[in-house]
Amino acid sequence: MNTALYIHWPFCLSKCPYCDFNSHVREKVDQKRWKKALVTELENSAEESDGKSLSSIFFGGGTPSLMDPDTVGSLIEKAKSLFKTDETLEITLEANPSTVESERFKGFNEAGVNRLSIGIQSLNDEALMFLGRRHSASEALNALKIAATYFPRYSFDLIYARPDQTPESWKEELSKALTYAGGHLSLYQLTIEPQTAFATRLKRGEKMTLEDDPAAALYELTDDMMRTAGLPAYEVSNYAAPGQECRHNLIYWNFGQYIGIGPGAHGRVSRSGAKYATSRYKAPETWLESVETKGHALQVSDLLSPEERLHEFTLMGLRLTQGLDLNRLYEETGLRVEEAYSPQALAVLEKEGLLIQTSSHLIATREGRMRLNGVIEFLLS
Ligand SMILES: C[S@@+](CC[C@H](N)C(=O)[O-])C[C@H]1O[C@@H](n2cnc3c(N)ncnc32)[C@H](O)[C@@H]1O
Ligand code: SF4
Questions:
Q1: Which residue, judged by its Cα, is nearest atom 4 of ligand 2?
Q2: Residue 277 domain flag
Q3: Which of 87, 266, 275, 332 has a C-alpha 20 to 30 A away from that of 152?
Q4: In testing the pocket of ligand 1, which one of 21, 101, 122, 123 has its CB within 8 Å of the most ligand atoms?
């Protein structure tokens, strides 16, 4: 069974006001201590699962571009010694585009990283300020140029549906972004997450995002522009030239197996046909102490019930534009489509143009993907 490995680096230089990822600002990080602990947890976690063949490693965060390239290199080497890999192994690292980190891109490449995912967020200085980013648009473009020099594959993230953003201004920004694109872009609509600074401002009555209708119009515009540019959507917020899809994320969306290490990292691991949801201690210091005393910081390893497997499989699979694979549905849940979902619910969703069923897949249409939470709730109710 092919496995993906996720490694979480929980530190950032500052906390962005929209972000609810497990990221923390610390004055000083003892890189040597963290390297040792991550390598220890990696060794320990390799015993956790049946799959011993690795097809992807993903350094996510937080800001993994703040890791020492040497730490990244040691983890890659250790993973290669614990799992079977081949030359197609995808090794992605998430990076922030500040100048200092861009200069480190070369080091990451030498450490074995072969794909970079850069958090550009916007190419507009005013929007970057609104999003609380530390970089300017020109630094972002410079980071993209350096990424293109060192990495055969790179992607970047943009956040749109910002308050008062017009179709014209987004069209201009996205057109510019496309001139710098490698084979992949992640284009996220701004969401207001609980417990963030943006959530507080929203509660105070400030307008923090676009309303639903203009945001839906931008989603359609994005979808059309990306298709025309030869990077069609392959997932709700992800666009790629054929063959350039992110292998790591495809494993998540196909409900495959992944091991997660580092603070707060989640995993889905298979053992003897059963599937477990794992998670690690979230607070960096608690995680570190646990690894240093026990060799791992596993906090939860829950057997997924058949209902939970169906729920997750549906949630993930319908995000993909190719849809949810009905053979995989049977493999994962032992259910055929008409047993998994109510035929009446399926008929209503098909009639409303939100779902399409083929002999091999259940597919959310573009309209369906825009209202995916509602579609899934109705389908599984
Ligand atoms: C782990 S985060 C960021 C990686 C990196 N630290 C950075 O900021 O460049 C991955 C991506 O999620 C997106 N994201 C995070 N919070 C978001 C939100 N509230 N709304 C939309 N996109 C969000 C951003 O585009 C971000 O680049
Ligand atoms: S968006 Fe990235 S840099 Fe900003 S707080 Fe979140 S993880 Fe850190």
A1: 16
A2: no
A3: 266
A4: 21
Question: Residue 31 in contact with residue 72, Cβ under 8 Å?
Answer: no
- Number of domains within the chain: 2
Residues 81 and 177 in one domain: yes
> d(Cα 60, Cα 6) in Å, to the nearest integer?
7
Pocket test for ligand 2, best of 8, 9, 63 (most atoms within 8 A of CB): 63
Structure tokens at 226: 């990306």
By C-alpha distance, which of 234, 145, 239 is closest to 184?
239
Cα(165) to centroid(ligand 2), Å? 22
Residue nearest to atom 2 of ligand 2 (CA): 62
Q: From ligand 1's centre to the CA of 272, what distance in Å?
A: 35
Can the peptide bond before residue 62 be classed as cis, meaning omega within 30 degrees of 0? Answer: yes
Whether 94 maps to a domain, the answer reads: yes
Domain span at 157: 2-251
Full pLDDT tens readout for the chain, 381 residues: 789 999 999 999 999 999 999 999 999 999 999 999 999 999 999 988 777 899 999 999 999 999 999 999 999 999 999 999 999 999 999 999 986 777 789 999 999 999 999 999 999 999 999 999 999 999 999 999 999 999 999 999 999 999 989 999 999 999 999 999 999 999 999 999 999 999 999 999 999 999 999 999 999 999 999 999 999 999 999 999 999 999 999 999 999 999 999 999 999 999 888 999 999 999 999 999 999 999 999 999 999 999 999 999 999 999 999 999 999 999 999 999 999 999 999 999 999 999 999 999 999 999 999 999 999 999 998
Last residue of a domain, one of 184, 218, 251: 251
